[in-house]
Design goal:
This protein is of the alpha/beta class and 477 residues long. It is built from 14 helices and 16 strands. The chain has helices at residues 37-55, 82-90, 94-111, 127-139, 218-230, 244-259, 290-295, 300-308, 320-338, 348-363, 368-380, 385-399, 403-443, 447-459; strands at 2-5, 10-13, 21-26, 59-66, 119-122, 143-146, 149-152, 191-195, 215-216, 236-240, 267-270, 273-275, 278-279, 316-317, 462-467, 470-475. The two termini are 60 Å apart. Zinc ion binds at residues 27, 222, 247.
């Protein structure tokens, strides 16, 4: 598989350190608010990548952190902790909002068919690992203590700016404007590993450490969690493009300084989802969530489909018109699948020929929109229904668009409405027969039978009314 690599700025062959095994790390969400659909674009594309790697036969060990401490309002180590800001906003404790938004994140992931990583660790559960890593960095001379904080010394590295050395335009830099310079740093690019001093002394969660009571920097958590659960040789690291600098740059600096060799050769970055007004961001407070889309009547899977129709290395602009188009295309696709019948046996030659279109698309830098074209090619192909359905099930193991489930649902709905109308017709016939019998009974002056019929129907909510034009009925719901 060719996969673009932000480190080399080329589409490189994806190879793993140990054949057959892929150690994959993903930066998890900062749980001070709901994930917005921009964040979820990154997680959807990473999910397809993970599932495709499994599909090709690799055993994937995917690890993800949950950022519940240390991510400051500016990625450049200044400002208030985002978690504390969230807790103040909602008049709750940091741990309460961390739990609430972590659960909300995984609930959204489930709605979008995003698989839960094999290992998920909140940063607050790994403090001892961070302390041990900072100690190693101090022992090896890569870190220093100044003004009460422990810093990473970037001047000790041969190369620090690993991503944007080639072309700064290619990477959207995560440093915000107007960041105040921290005077305790030796070099401008140094970053905090452990805080004991901060302008914001009301940090709720603090831990004892060899350097005093404090809390970890944001970057150390991903390095330490990945080294612990993925081992020293990571094959693939993922995240949104805003994480490339400074977060991933700092992860590489401290991980390689700690282990003494190259850490991760392949970096996968997803470009942003934007609105017509610019980047969708959590901190601005104005963003779209999966629940909001649901309230507006969209199936979350339609948002997944919308994302897969574009390449992950292109910025994607969200609009309701574009989502409506995706919803209409998804509905048509499902109707086509629902019309297929599993006739005959799966023909292996047909299966392999059509499957190759799909794997060629994904081998080509995870081209998901071409993979969806391959799905349409299957539906149009001159092959039997059993082969088509087998291919659709096979592709959906990677795309996770609930193709067969949705097709079954619309078939079941159709059958239900057909049987409802058949039931309606039966009831109509029965009522009309009883009305005729009642008229005949009245003519024969058998009023007991006539009343029995009227009362029997009334008990079932069917009210008879005698009019000049004859007897009519009304069904009370
Ligand atoms: P956060 O919860 O802010 O730590 O971000 C979680 C993930 O979403 C990270 O991988 C970010 O790089 C990514 N991300 C943030 N904003 C966007 C966006 N507008 N579009 C796509 N991914 C994003
Ligand atoms: Zn990270």
């Amino acid at each position: 598989m060719k996969l673009y690599n932000s480190l080399t700025r080329r589409r490189d062959d994806f190879v793993t350190h140990t054949p057959g095994i892929c150690n994959m790390y993903t930066c998890g969400p900062t749980v001070y608010h709901f994930a917005h659909i921009g964040n979820l674009r990154s997680y959807i594309m990473e999910d397809v990548l993970e599932k495709y790697l499994r599909y090709t036969g690799l055993k994937v060990n995917r690890v993800m952190n949950i950022t519940d401490v240390g991510h400051l309002s500016s990625d450049a180590d200044t400002g208030e902790d985002k978690m504390l800001k969230g807790a103040k906003r909602e008049h709750k404790s940091v741990m309460e909002i961390a739990k609430f938004y972590t659960d909300a994140f995984f609930a959204d992931c489930e709605k979008l068919n995003i698989r839960r990583p094999d290992t998920v660790r909140p940063a607050t559960g790994c403090i001892d690992d961070f302390i041990a890593m900072v100690e190693t960095l101090l022992d090896k001379g890569y870190a220093y203590i100044s003004g009460g904080n422990v810093y990473f010394d970037t001047s000790k590295l041969e190369e620090y700016y690993v991503f944007n050395k080639h072309d700064a335009e290619d990477l959207e830099v995560g440093v915000r404007e107007g960041v105040e310079e921290d005077c305790a740093k030796k070099n401008k690019s140094d970053f905090v590993l452990w805080f004991t001093k901060s302008k914001f002394d009301d940090q709720e969660l603090k831990w004892d450490s060899p350097w005093g009571i404090g809390y970890p920097g944001w970057h150390i958590e991903c390095s330490a969690i990945s080294l612990k659960y993925n081992g020293e040789y990571l094959d693939l690291h993922c995240g949104g493009i805003d994480n490339a600098f400074p977060h991933h740059t700092n992860e590489i600096a401290q991980s390689e300084a700690c282990i003494g060799h190259k850490w991760c050769p392949h970096w996968f970055h997803v470009l942003h989802l934007n609105t017509s007004g610019g980047k969708m961001s959590k901190s601005s407070g104005e963003f779209l969530t999966v629940s909001l889309l649901e309230e507006k009547g969209y199936d979350p899977i339609v948002y997944r489909f919308f994302c897969l129709l574009s390449h992950y290395r292109k910025s994607l602009v969200f609009s309701y018109d574009a989502l409506d188009n995706a919803a209409a295309a998804y509905k048509k696709l499902i109707e086509k699948i629902a019309a297929l019948r599993a006739d005959g046996d799966v023909i292996p030659e047909d299966f392999d020929r059509l499957k190759k279109l799909f794997t060629d698309a994904l081998d080509n830098d995870l081209n998901t929109s071409l993979a969806i074209t391959a799905l349409y090619d299957v539906i149009k192909a001159d092959v039997n229904g059993a082969t088509k359905l087998a291919l659709i099930a096979d592709f959906d193991g990677v795309l996770s668009l609930s193709l067969l489930e949705s097709a079954e649902r619309i078939s079941a709905d159709k059958n239900n409405s057909l049987s409802n109308s058949a039931a309606d017709e039966n009831l109509q016939n029965e009522i009309e027969a009883l009305i005729a019998e009642r008229s005949a009974a009245k003519k024969e002056k058998n009023f007991a039978r006539a009343d029995e019929i009227r009362d029997g129907l009334a008990a079932r909510g069917i009210i008879l009314k005698d009019t000049k034009e004859g007897t009519v009925y009304e069904i009370k719901s």
